[in-house]
Design goal:
By secondary structure, the chain is an all-beta fold. The protein is built from no helices and 15 strands. The strands form two sheets. The protein has an eight-stranded mixed sheet, with no helix packed on it. Residues 117-180 form the IPT/TIG domain.
């Protein structure tokens, strides 16, 4: 089984299959980095499925390549779900560098669009994140993410140009949110 993946900013959703999840009071996931355990919360969807957010790791280090970490779950007093990667059939938790999304290139950061899709460039976009971990907001509306590769995200735009969130700008702002914790203000959008 492939191990779970995450980023230092945390918040990437991983799905866990097992049993008796519905009887655990406060299930948590943790990763161990430099001898310290970093926990995060899990939510039992039913008795056999649970969703966990990957933990946020507080570190001044700038991660540049993948790191293998010990991980496990804290489920009341159950010891068998701790340090899972030391057991047969379990890989380590893979920590990847945070993704980075580039701003629109022109000076005023306004992008004119002639199509139904918006493409945003960046790096390390899909090592740990999938489409469902990334949210693109345009003003008060969403741009539905349709594809995510290592260096590009593409999303389908709302039909009409969304209104700006505040009245200071004449164009709606484009914001990318990864895992609920990482936020990138990309620029502004003008439908052509």
């Amino acid at each position: 089984r492939k191990g779970p993946r995450g980023i230092p900013a945390g918040g990437i959703i991983i799905t866990v299959d097992g049993r008796n999840f519905d009887v655990i009071k406060e299930p948590k996931m943790y990763v161990e980095y430099k001898g310290k355990k970093y926990p995060s919360t899990c939510e039992a969807k039913n008795a056999t499925r649970m969703e966990c957010q990957t933990p946020k790791i507080n570190s001044t280090k700038d991660f540049s390549e993948e790191i293998r970490l010990t991980y496990g779950f804290i489920m009341d007093e159950v010891k068998g779900v701790m340090n899972l990667n030391e057991r047969d059939g379990f890989d380590s938790f893979l920590l990847y560098p945070n993704p980075y999304y580039h701003n629109f290139e022109n000076e005023d950061k306004i992008k004119q669009l002639k199509s139904d899709y918006l493409t945003i460039n960046g790096k390390n976009l899909d090592h740990a994140s999938q489409e469902g971990d990334v949210e693109v907001r345009i003003g008060g509306e969403f741009c539905n993410v349709t594809s995510l590769s290592q260096n590009q995200l593409t999303c389908k735009l709302p039909k009409e140009q969304p209104a700006p969130m505040n009245n200071e700008n004449s164009f709606p702002e484009v914001v990318v949110i990864v895992g609920g914790n990482l936020l990138f203000e990309i620029g502004y959008l003008e439908y052509y």
